[in-house]
Amino acid sequence: MPDLLQIGGITDVMRARLEEAFTIHALADTALPSETITHVVTNGHDGVKPEIMDGLPNLKMISCYGVGYDAIDASACVERGIMVTHTPNVLNAEVATTAVMLMLACYREVLRDDAYVRSGAWAKDGNAPLTRSADNQTVGILGLGRIGQAIADKLAPWGAKIVYHTRTEKDVPYTYYPNLVDMARDVDTLICITPGGPATNKLVNADVIDALGPQGTLVNVSRGSVVDEVALVAALQEGRLGWAGLDVFEREPQVPEALCKLPNVVLLPHVGSATVETRAAMGALTVDNLLQHLADGTVISAVPECQGM
Ligand code: A2R
């Protein structure tokens, strides 16, 4: 059987299917047969480090369990003729739910009010302070792709007015902002859902955060690298930004202590797509890509860089 290198975790269902077609090797294996590894299964967080890829001379395909593949150098893969696949679409609805959940949790102060009940403050001090309504807000989506559109759809029942910023204007019924600072100035909430990588590094900088302002809410379900975390913490501490709902961080799983101490943030451990149902669908697509590539050299969901291969 061909040799498959496993980087990061896979589910039992994925393993059972892969074991029927591949001999699976872990990165930590002392006797890793680097020369004969033809396939890699990894995830968006671990990716494939350049030094690992360099040590695999017969690598033909990398299947990424996730839609974001910024931890894999796809251009270098194209040069070497290595196919890269990912899992788009099957997680759109779940990540959109996470984004909306973070937005609602910020507006309605879910964590503060939960603590209010648990601490006994309700009985002792009376009703909790009022919160802000999440209805009829102007929401700017940074990255109106597959997931961004799903977020817009999920916000429709809240009467949201959707606007967006991307590099190219889309054929959608929402106002387009070619400039991100201008959009941030005009919205109540900014939701980040671009890919990670150098092109989007710290796209949400101090200028964007200041434009969002003291009444603004920032939600990030994309990559930690998209937001300047130092600028974000400072703005939240100084009241220059109102609230933040964050699923992703610059140095996961490390989260700045200063962020953890702030009352005006909701923090999640990168669980945007992490439900049993959605991870099963992502796992199935990850394995389907590998098995199809093994069978006839084609794949179901190549990353854009590899679509012409
Ligand atoms: O810029 P465009 O026209 O290519 O639109 C894409 C936008 N985008 C950007 N917007 C502003 N500045 C950039 N430098 C930039 N780069 C990309 O992000 C497009 O509207 C959106 C990405 O959409 P999709 O490719 O359909 O990705 P999907 O499936 O929505 O996933 C987005 C990301 C993943 O890469 C993971 O990092 C995360 O969500 O879970």
CATH architecture of the largest domain: 3-Layer(aba) Sandwich
- Give the strand content: 15-25%
What's the average pLDDT? 98
CATH-defined superfamily of the largest domain: NAD(P)-binding Rossmann-like Domain
Order of helices and strands: EHEEHEHEHHHEHEEHEHEHEHEH
Strand order of the largest sheet: 8-7-6-9-10-11-12
Largest sheet: 7 strands, parallel
Let me know the number of strands: 12
The residue ranges in which pLDDT falls below 50 over 5 or more consecutive positions are none
Derived from helix and strand composition plus strand pairing, the structural class reads alpha/beta
End-to-end separation: 25 Å
Q: Tally the structural domains.
A: 2
SSE order and pairing:
Blueprint: E1 3-6, H1 12-19, E2 23-26, E3 37-43, H2 50-54, E4 61-65, H3 74-80, E5 83-85, H4 92-107, H5 110-118, H6 121-125, E6 138-142, H7 146-155, E7 161-165, E8 175-176, H8 180-186, E9 189-192, H9 206-212, E10 217-220, H10 229-237, E11 243-246, H11 257-260, E12 265-267, H12 276-296
Helix pairs in contact: 1-12, 4-7, 8-9
Bound molecules: ligand A2R.
